[in-house]
Design a protein that fits this description.
Length: 403
């Protein structure tokens, strides 16, 4: 594990630059789970994620000559911004290699912080391999996102801050990709209070560290696919794996559907925008993946909030359909004046709101003289949708439900 004094030293080094983010009590999750749940809001960090902690501490520990040479990093986004803003603070050159599928939000944010961005590879591991070669060719210092003691020590400052606020925490949940965050957190926690239970949460679509933990040996993945791009790491590394085996008590997975539910939950209940990786631990709690009997105070790390706007829109829209607040139906009408008006009147009678409507009279699936209406409705829950169906049926409309 990382020595506790290194984590305290990191806390001092980053104090004047990195935000001490709120550690707030969640009344919603606490009521739902019948225990006290606290959220560490790293989505409110300077760069929108915890990664700035380790990046700044790592660069602060470089020699003067190393800083003059410049730094390079490989990242899906959050580490990139952490390195970029830290390099800018120290006035040094920074190059960031990002996977080609990295959300535009993260690419733009990294460029705006003054770093040179190179898009390379389908995932973090391919970007990483390219960055290593680029570093050698251009004499740059590689800042690893998780396989580095100074990085892990910086991330471990999160644990110190949480305990400063709530000294008697008895469980911590942290998201896991490469393992740098949980390595730092678990190292600090186990040296301060060995009884604190540490639980890692990974995305089902990026299972390397999860499978390695449960098999007690490194098992890499062939590919990764998850909306939680911040923890979409294909391969497990030995340094973080060894610390996780030593300090982490339990490791669970959540799938993309569960992660999306948690993103929407945090947005609606807490008015907080949290990315997929950041919401993964809340997903584990919402879907009751962890037995909580006997645990009174639980700390949950919301690791970041840099979610792509298009992804957020998809999550919101799908969530509205799943929670019966929207429905999409196809209605076949006789294509004559007044037919659409009659349909509109029926929907009005059912007190539903029309959000979108498409009119098609040319489909080869239609009888001549018919038209197909695709209509999206805003509704107020399951019972309201039953009323819409009942009203349309009673009015004689031929319809089928799409969503």
């Amino acid at each position: 594990m990382i020595e506790l004094n290194k984590i305290y030293q990191a806390k001092q080094k980053i104090a004047d630059f990195v935000l001490k983010t709120p550690f707030v009590h969640s009344s919603f999750l606490s009521d739902f789970l019948q225990t006290d749940v606290f959220l560490k809001c790293e989505n409110l960090q300077k760069t929108g994620a915890y990664k700035i902690r380790g990046a700044y501490n790592c660069i602060a520990n470089l020699t003067k000559e190393q800083r003059q040479a410049g730094v390079i990093a490989a990242s899906a986004g959050n580490h990139a911004q952490g390195v970029a803003i830290s390099a800018k603070k120290f006035g040094i050159k920074a190059v960031i290699v990002m996977p080609e599928a990295t959300p535009l939000l993260k690419v733009s944010a990294t460029k705006n912080l003054g770093a040179k961005v190179i898009l390379k590879g389908d995932n973090f591991d391919e970007a990483y391999a390219y960055a290593i070669e680029y570093a050698k060719e251009n004499n740059l210092n590689f800042i690893h996102p998780f396989e580095n003691e100074n990085i892990m020590a910086g991330q471990g400052t999160l644990m110190l801050e949480m305990l400063d606020e709530v000294s008697d925490l008895d469980m911590i949940l942290a998201p896991v990709g490469g393992g740098g965050l949980i390595s730092g957190i678990a190292s600090a926690a186990k040296q301060i209070n060995p009884n604190i239970k540490i639980i890692g949460v990974s995305a089902k679509g990026a299972p390397a560290m999860y499978e390695s933990f449960h098999n007690k040996s490194i098992i890499n993945s062939k590919s990764v696919r998850t909306i939680a791009d911040g923890i979409a790491v294909r391969d497990a590394n030995k340094i973080n794996f060894d610390i996780i085996l030593e300090c982490v008590d339990e490791f669970i997975q959540v799938d993309d559907e569960e992660i999306a539910n948690a993103v929407l939950y945090l947005l609606e209940k807490h008015k907080m925008i949290v990315e997929g990786a950041g919401a993964s631990c809340v997903a584990a709690l919402l879907h009751k993946k962890i037995p909580l009997d006997g645990y009174k105070k639980i700390g949950v790390v919301l690791s970041g909030g840099n979610i792509d706007v298009q992804m957020l829109n998809i999550i919101i829209e799908k969530g509205l359909f799943k929670s019966f607040r929207k429905m999409l139906i196809n209605v076949t009408l006789i294509d004559k004046p007044g037919a659409l008006s009659a349909l509109s009147d029926a929907i009005k009678e059912a007190k539903a709101n029309i959000v979108k409507i498409d009119y098609d009279r040319f489909s080869t699936k239609l009888e001549y003289g018919d038209a197909m209406i695709s209509i999206t409705l805003e509704t107020k829950g399951r019972e309201h949708q039953e009323l819409v169906r009942k009203t349309l049926f009673e009015k004689g409309f031929n319809f089928n439900e799409i969503l």
